Amino acid sequence: MQETVQLEIFRYRPDQESEPTFQTYEVPFREDWVVLDAINYIKEQIDGTLSYRWSCRMGVCGSCGMMVNGVPKLTCAVFLRDYHEGKIRVEPLSGFPVERDLVSVVDDFINKLKDIKAWIIREEGQEQPVEEGEYLQTPAELAQYKQYSMCINCMLCYAACPVYAQDSTFIGPAAIALGQRYNMDSRDQGRDQRQEIIASHEGIWECTFVGECTTVCPKDVDPAAAIQRAKVSSTIDWFKEVLVPWGKRK
Ligand code: FES
Fold this sequence. Notes:
Layout: E1 4-11, E2 21-28, H1 35-46, E3 65-68, E4 71-74, E5 88-91, E6 98-100, E7 103-104, H2 107-116, H3 139-145, H4 156-160, H5 162-166, H6 173-183, H7 191-198, H8 212-216, H9 223-242
Parallel strand pairs: 1-5
Antiparallel strand pairs: 1-2, 3-4, 3-5, 6-7
Helix pairs in contact: 2-6, 6-9
The protein binds FE2/S2 (inorganic) cluster.
FE2/S2 (inorganic) cluster binds near residues 54, 55, 57, 61 and 74.
């Protein structure tokens, strides 16, 4: 007889139901299946009404993030065999409104990426003409920000963050880490614009350094460190602004 595993899946179809429920499905257990494979099996073989997001199935696109037994995970990167004993409970990422079933509403995060200006900014007239080629960097300059550039916008760090769970106005781990990624890029000249957001009341000072954002990151980015580094540089800004006489400023 084929071995099976049970998945307890969060269901919510707001056009049909006033409250979410959980539905249990039995799927074949295979050593090499990730949790996303089991969800795809449910969709294809058992219940085509189930809604969820995924795309690459290789930990790159960041779209398959869900709560697996209460912990934010990329469902394409965790194996059924890791949860085989008992049921596996799958829910949408916590901290975000639910669109339908396992699909979260991600507008808040997308708007925060826009607010933080997660792209290279050059001062007006400072853009390098195309014919002069690329902006070059030394390996040391690249190393300054490379770790933060590995973020795939999966939002697991938001689902793990107790501050964001209490107050969604918090800019949050990934957006601040990406702001730092560009602030530390030698080609960028947009730090002053980003600081208005990063050092605002909703920015770095909301973070209480629990560090769960870093613990759950599937790409080994360290958003908690990015936030603490931003706190240090913002404090230095403040000292320069308030304590250093104008004549001595660099
Ligand atoms: S499907 Fe792309 S990261 Fe999981």
